[in-house]
Amino acid sequence: xxxxxxxxxxxxxxxxxxxxxxxxxxxxxxxxxxxxxxxxxxxxxxxxxxxxxxxxxxxxxxxxxxxxxxxxxxxxxxxxxxxxxxxxxxxxxxxxxxxxxxxxxxxxxxxxxxxxxxxxxxxxxxxxxxxxxxxxxxxxxxxxxxxxxxxxxxxxxxxxxxxxxxxxxxxxxxxxxxxxxxxxxxxxxxxxxxxxxxxxxxxxxxxxxxxxxxxxxxxxxxxxxxxxxxxxxxxxxxxxxxxxxxxxxxxxxxxxxxxxxxxxxxxxxxxxxxxxxxxxxxxxxxxxxxxxxxxxxxxxxxxxxxxxxxxxxxxxxxxxxxxxxxxxxxxxxxxxxxxxxxxxxxxxxxxxxxxxxxxxxxxxxxxxxxxxxxxxxxxxxxxxxxxxxxxxxxxxxxxxxxxxxxxxx
Length: 409
Ligand code: NAP
Prior knowledge:
Helix content is 44%, strand content 16%. The chain is an alpha/beta fold and 409 residues long. Strand 14 (380-382), helix 14 and strand 15 form a beta-alpha-beta unit. The longest helix is centred in the N-terminal third of the chain and has 19 residues, at 37-55. The site of NADP nicotinamide-adenine-dinucleotide phosphate has 18 residues, from loops. NADP nicotinamide-adenine-dinucleotide phosphate binds at residues 36, 40, 99-102, 112, 311, 328, 331-334, 336, 343-344, 347, 384.
């Protein structure tokens, strides 16, 4: 059953989660990942252990426990996503994962989607911030400092689709015609796009709460409600209603602000296509984004590309209400580089940074950011980040990790 905590209950839940990690030896399950996982996980783990040791003078240490998923799981236990893996994530609260192969033609659509849905990780959190020294396709990448909250369980991710030509799709097609008079071509596949009040509220609540906690100036609700009024449009409407109901002491809508939000967080809404233009033209005007699943899918990768960070963009899948979270590299398994100790572990390392911050281990998280900033600025980077730079030394995955460790000493 989906909970839907109010603002106060949500903050209590977040506090409780942090307190549960106020311990010296928490167990954190990890999935190594397929393909380049074999290169980037060991490199990342070296960095995680080093920052924790440095930040807490050797008094804290993560007890890493490997769990299986993807190709490695299939080869070992003949299952793509063993129940034990989900149970272990569930037991220990947070976990981290490398990229996973999506099995083609198997019963499971995507292991990543299955993990998010099974654990009801309703927020896909994507922070997008520029690291000085990275080559970018845009002129002022330093203007991008945006945290995007993408709904993770509804919309097209709900996977309610029927294939063209099947008995089921014809049955649904007939039903739609008889009950609603909807004429849909007989040779169509049909997908359902559910967007609920509960799902929208809990996502937008998490986003505005984050904005309040992190002194952000504005929140944009990104939607396509001009066309899809009762799904995307309802997401927008429920968002404004929630702000009014629970956050009116700290936030104000554009309409009610009369152009002057004062000290309050300004809440506006932007249509998804216009948003994709505006993040190129004036990204500095956006701090926190709350959006539906498909819009968030496009926008988060577009933003990552804007700062040249598609290979190092981190992500987290979070249920703030029950505290469960799985952090992950956002790129895929890059099979052509697997086992070559070549791929950039940056995305996984920064996902670890997000994980430490989520656990309240801010000192360890800060060290990751500082050491990453230094290594990139020095030009000590993997092959991908060396492109377009003449001052860079090309490092292997493990050497990049060593460079980070050196920079935290
Ligand atoms: P991909 O694995 O992300 O690789 C595409 C390209 O991105 C690579 O060839 C490489 O480009 C660059 N790249 C990705 N990760 C990198 C890293 N760590 N360091 C440096 N460069 C990196 O995408 P794909 O080839 O479309 O997908 C391969 C498999 O991954 C598929 O099975 C897919 O389903 C799966 N996948 C998994 C996840 C996930 O687990 N979250 C996400 C996406 C895809 P260059 O060759 O130009 O350097």
